Amino acid sequence: MKTLVLSHKEVLELLPIKECIAVMREALLALADGNAYQPLRTISRPPDAQGVMGLMPAYMSGDRAAFGLKAICVFPGNPAKGLDSHQGAVLLFSAETGELLAMMNASAITAIRTAAVSGVATDLLARVDACNLALIGSGVQARSHLLAMAEVRAINRCRIASRHIEHARNFAEEMRRDFSFALEPVETVEEALEGADLVVTTTTAVEPIVRREWISAGAHLNLVGSSTPNTREVNSETMAAASLFVDRRESTINEAGDYLLAAGDGVIGPDHIRAEIGEVLKGDKPGRTSPQEITLFKSLGIAIEDLFAAEYLHRRAQERKVGLWVEF
């Protein structure tokens, strides 16, 4: 048996954002239907290390049953070196024999599937006429999220705020050639949020960078940057004011700093989570209920998303005869 190895470039070629959005809908529906299994991720944080390592296993049942494991290192200092902060591999295993079917670049899968899940959430929860995007951050996830937002809504304008205005300017210049709408770098997060009805945060912030009073009525927010219990991108007042949707309840109440720190302030609890995205897709739980409602999707990124992406990539690589196939 041969094992497939897919590079960063090959993953990007085989998994365009539009197709990945459809794959992520399927993954979240499978989770809601009970056709997928995943425990909480395991994080290794050595006290003297510059980064952390996460292990994210999952299983999908059905006609395309498979096991998957993402082994991912997160190094916050990498962007300063011109590298993605997320480095690792996604492994795909046969559900029949346990044989290793594929090893794929995790940086590329993470960048695409995270934005695609935000695309699914935005399509479900944002107002149909939402068109003014505030993009907070200018790294890998900002790039993929700009693609995803443009896929599900007709964007008129995107304002970009970053820790350094030069980064926002460089981002706007780089991405301008791919989009017909205006890309406007701004000095502050508050400026970016003025009049925005779509908000995406993709930062490494530890303390809140978004305040409730800056958010317009009827806006939809995707919070992407924070994935640990002690970091957050929005303040507690924002969490309390918004209708909260998540990828997985269990993961949110154990791992999401935006939720946990607001809960620690006593302003929200588990009942504040209206639904998982899969439950809204199924029609079991309501999404947006009024044009003035503020909706918020807290993205953590979960293992079943990586597994569905990997299984799709494996099939596509076979069809197109792409990748390196090696005896293992």
Task: Pick out the low-confidence regions.
Answer: none
Give Rg in angstroms.
Answer: 19 Å
Shape, per Cα inertia axes: globular
What's the CATH architecture name of the largest domain? 3-Layer(aba) Sandwich
Tell me the domain tally.
Answer: 2
Mean pLDDT: 96
Order of helices and strands: EHHEEEEEEHEHEHEHEEHEHHEHEHE
Strand segment count = 16
CATH class group of the largest domain: Alpha Beta
Describe this structure in words.
The longest helix has 20 residues, at 106-125. The protein has helices spanning 8-14, 17-33, 106-125, 140-152, 165-176, 189-193, 236-241, 249-255, 257-264, 277-282, 303-320; strands spanning 2-6, 36-37, 42-44, 52-60, 66-74, 86-94, 100-105, 132-136, 157-161, 182-185, 198-201, 220-223, 243-246, 273-276, 295-298, 324-327. The chain is globular and about 60 Å long. With 328 residues, the protein is an alpha/beta fold. The protein folds into two domains: 2-110 and 304-327, ornithine cyclodeaminase, domain 1 (2-Layer Sandwich), CATH 3.30.1780.10; 117-301, NAD(P)-binding Rossmann-like Domain (Rossmann fold, 3-Layer(aba) Sandwich). The protein is built from eleven helices and 16 strands. The relative contact order is 0.19. The strands form two sheets. Strands 1, 2, 3, 4, 5, 6, 7 and 16 form an eight-stranded mixed sheet that branches. Strands 10-9-8-11-12-15-13-14 form an eight-stranded parallel sheet.
Q: How are the secondary structure elements laid out?
A:
Layout: E1 2-6, H1 8-14, H2 17-33, E2 36-37, E3 42-44, E4 52-60, E5 66-74, E6 86-94, E7 100-105, H3 106-125, E8 132-136, H4 140-152, E9 157-161, H5 165-176, E10 182-185, H6 189-193, E11 198-201, E12 220-223, H7 236-241, E13 243-246, H8 249-255, H9 257-264, E14 273-276, H10 277-282, E15 295-298, H11 303-320, E16 324-327
Parallel strand pairs: 1-7, 8-9, 8-11, 9-10, 11-12, 12-15, 13-14, 13-15
Antiparallel strand pairs: 1-16, 2-4, 3-4, 4-5, 5-6, 6-7
